[in-house]
Design goal:
Number of domains: 1
Pfam families: FA_desaturase
Protein name: Alkane 1-monooxygenase
Family: Belongs to the fatty acid desaturase type 1 family. AlkB subfamily.
GO biological process, one term: lipid metabolic process
Order of helices and strands: HHHHHHHHHEEHHHHH
Oligomer: single chain
Largest sheet: 2 strands, antiparallel
Membrane topology: Multi-pass membrane protein
Mean pLDDT: 94
Length: about 375
């Protein structure tokens, strides 16, 4: 029996190891900080370029693990998400200390280095926080809060769980990018609307319990305290320069997150049924991507159709869908995020796919104008 258990564990490790490739960002960042100069470019090249190349070489992975797989069989997958938070903490604050003592780094190099730190904390860190916040374990949820606080985006937990998952594809969800809306218009809109909708949702939950918004159980007190703590730590270690670089990496991380949010649901809307009612969320309401290597980097985030269909599934168990069930992205997220930064190119690639999606899934809808800019009524119960 012991040999069988050992064999099963080693097999689970082999299958999980590709998802550990994201940890390579840490030695790459250390090498870049030590050498300076053009070596700093290795961080985004590793995070974006390497996995784009691997996507081209390894193709798509359309296999699915059994969704009934038990927790014990997933321990090697879970471990990487538990290791990341302390490593990210060491990376951010270690780099703040390092740039204060490294005489060989000029200002341009310091800014470039913290751009790379933001790529790590945004591309991977927020994504891991997203995985952890969906779990029942208090430890995992706390790790998610720490990761989000380290990029000053703590409200994302409330907004994602209470607003986005409930109201995706409707006018109540700010992060469902609208058809023909460029990313540069999308970003300021969500930066303004999402904190408000997150706070309003928590306030409404407290009201239903007969409690005021300022009650100690409001998670925003925890969000604000953690963020203030990280800001103070950055200042204590690096002074005003350290604080500025911390803020800069946070902005880069948030930009990365919102690029992904923009891609995941662009132009996809749930059918309005009248009287404030919308159809249930289905796999068709998220863009799916089965590109193998970028799913390693993003722990299957690109299987986003299934994540919205079954939000409580851990990342190894997320299922991929074919084009009959869900719309498909032509490339993985690293390529699609670069395309999103160029709105004419984005529209050329994606608008025909949105129109095809409408024809395939909603042939009975003739007038799409109310769906363009959130013209339909908000869902019943939306804050």
């Amino acid at each position: 029996m012991g040999d069988v258990t050992l064999a099963a564990a080693s097999g689970g490790l082999r299958r999980a190891l590709p998802f550990w490739l994201a940890l390579g960002l840490f030695p790459v960042a250390i090498l870049a900080a030590w050498q300076g100069g053009w070596w700093i470019a290795l961080i985004p090249l590793y995070g974006w370029g390497l996995f784009t190349l691997l996507d081209a070489l390894t193709g798509r992975d359309e296999s699915n693990l059994d969704p009934a797989t038990g927790e014990d069989a997933l321990r090697w997958y879970r471990l990487v998400t538990l290791l990341w938070p302390p490593l990210q903490f060491a990376l951010i604050f270690g780099m703040i200390w390092w740039v204060g003592v490294a005489d060989h780094l000029g200002w341009i190099e310091k800014i470039a280095l913290f751009f790379g730190v933001g790529v790590a904390s945004g591309t991977v860190g927020i994504n891991y926080a997203h995985e952890l916040m969906h779990q029942k374990s208090k430890v995992e949820r706390w790790l998610a809060d720490l990761l989000l606080a380290s990029v000053l985006y703590s409200h994302f937990r409330s907004e994602h769980l209470l607003v986005h998952h409930r109201h995706v594809g409707t006018p109540a969800d700010a992060v469902t990018a609208r058809y023909n809306e460029g990313f540069h218009r999308f970003l300021p809109r969500v930066l303004w609307q999402c904190p408000q909708s997150a706070f309003a949702s928590e306030k409404e939950m407290l009201r239903r319990r007969g409690l005021p918004w300022y009650h100690r159980s409001n998670p925003f007190w925890r969000y604000w305290a953690l963020q203030a703590g990280f800001l103070a730590l950055a200042f204590a270690i690096g002074g005003w320069t350290g604080l500025a670089l911390f803020l800069y990496q946070a902005f880069v991380a948030i930009w990365q997150l919102e690029l992904v949010n923009y891609i995941e649901h662009y132009g996809l809307t749930r059918e309005y049924l009248g009287e404030g009612r919308y159809e249930h969320v289905k796999p068709r309401h998220s863009w799916n991507a089965s590109h193998r290597a970028s799913n390693w980097l993003l722990i299957n985030l690109q299987r986003h159709s299934d994540h919205h269909y079954k939000p409580d599934r851990r990342f190894p168990l997320l299922q991929t869908y074919d084009e009959v069930e869900a719309p498909q992205l032509p490339y993985g997220y690293p390529v699609m995020t670069m395309a999103a930064m160029v709105p004419p190119l984005w529209r050329r690639v994606m608008n025909p796919r949105v129109r095809k999606w409408r024809a395939d899934f909603y042939p009975a809808i003739r007038d799409w104008k109310p769906y363009y800019k959130g013209g339909n009524p908000k869902p019943r119960g939306a804050a």
